[in-house]
Design brief:
single chain; alpha+beta; Catalase HpII,  Chain A, domain 1; ten-stranded antiparallel sheet; 9 helices; globular; binds protoporphyrin IX containing FE; peroxidase; Catalase-related peroxidase
């Protein structure tokens, strides 16, 4: 009997990272946690009745991260992309809801099976002399994966200058019962700013983690959370299909980070962000990538707690 695809995904991520690395996430292992608050815009309530979109100043917990399961990956390393942002909104009734996004708009695979195919091809290419290599073969027959790996992923000046994208669509319903599908965009108020190639090559291994910890002491770290709204006929269940920039976007509100969580390392270990931890007014699409994520994250979470 084969293991479930979600567990195989965590196994391959672990192998690719040279793990297991006891106590760390199988992906996005290196990170830092901050806290702050979220205040909705005036039009947010017209999109969804979700509690944090009705009232000001919901407390938020944010974790920024580098890709891969390598706990000490240099922040500017080519493998440390996409960057991640995980946001937990604490709601007045004691529950919470999460947004978990990356620094690339779009995903390399439409299904967990295809994502496993890509990761396994990368794994099988290590030390392989085959021409074309397994990963070259995979990319040759999977245009979305080719597009994702060839998308430029420049090193940001700061996590506070990096835009992030929700990639998976959700269904938003307002108090009048009107529904729309949308994808999150998390846009830095400081503007998108990147290092030159030379500066990235010279960057210290922890430059992003250190920079955000310093910046938050003296400057605002703020993002606008936008929702890109699907037109009729837009693909809502396929994360490889990016919607055109011309689609309507609605500002949902402003995220303001105020400090680093004091015990960031201990807190992140016992915390699992979950893109399907939702609240009334926000529902999942049927995107198979989205629906696979909580299971894969729970496998990784269970292992890190037991290591
Ligand atoms: C089937 C597809 C995917 C798989 C198998 C996968 C796998 C994982 C795993 C195993 C973790 C570690 C979770 C933990 O231990 O707490 C993780 C974390 C993360 N993933 Fe994914 N992922 C997928 C898709 C995505 C997508 C589509 C996005 C964003 C659009 C994303 C963004 C992130 C981020 C930001 C984190 C770090 C969360 C944190 O800071 O705790 N992933 N992923």
């Amino acid at each position: 009997d084969e293991k479930p695809v979600t567990e195989q995904l965590v196994d391959t991520l672990t192998t690719l990272a040279g793990g297991p690395h006891a106590g760390f996430r199988a992906n996005h292992a290196k990170g830092i946690m901050l806290e702050g608050s979220f205040t909705p815009s005036a039009q947010a309530a017209s999109i969804s009745k979700a509690a944090h979109l009705q009232k000001a100043d919901s407390p938020v917990l944010v974790r920024f991260s580098d890709a891969t399961g390598v706990p000490n990956i240099p922040d500017a390393s080519g493998n440390a992309f996409p960057k991640g942002i995980a946001i937990r909104f604490q709601l007045a009734d004691g529950t919470a809801t999460d947004i978990v996004s990356i620094s690339v708009n779009g995903f390399p695979a439409a299904t967990p099976e295809d994502f496993l195919g890509l990761l396994n091809a990368v794994r099988d290419s290590q030390g392989s002399t085959a021409k074309p290599s397994p990963v070259e073969q995979f990319l040759g027959s999977h245009p979305a994966a080719l597009k994702f790996v060839t998308t430029p992923k420049p090193a940001p000046v700061s996590f506070a200058t990096q835009p992030f994208f929700g990639v998976n669509a959700f269904k938003f319903t307002n108090a009048a019962g009107q529904s729309e599908y949308g994808r999150y965009q998390i846009i830095p108020v400081a503007g998108a700013q990147y290092l030159s190639k030379e500066a990235a090559d010279a960057a210290a291994p922890d430059y992003l983690m250190n920079e955000i910890a310093e910046r938050v002491k003296t400057q605002g770290v703020q993002y606008k959370i936008l929702l890109q709204i699907a037109d009729k006929g837009d693909e809502v269940n396929n994360a490889t299909v990016v919607w055109p920039d011309s689609r309507k976007t609605v500002e949902l509100g402003t995220l303001t980070l105020k400090s680093v969580v004091a015990d960031s390392k201990a807190r992140e270990k016992t915390l699992m962000f979950n893109p399907l931890q939702l609240t009334e007014g926000i529902e999942p699409s049927q995107d198979p990538i989205l629906l696979a994520r909580p299971t894969a994250y729970a496998v990784s979470y269970g292992r890190r707690l037991n290591q």
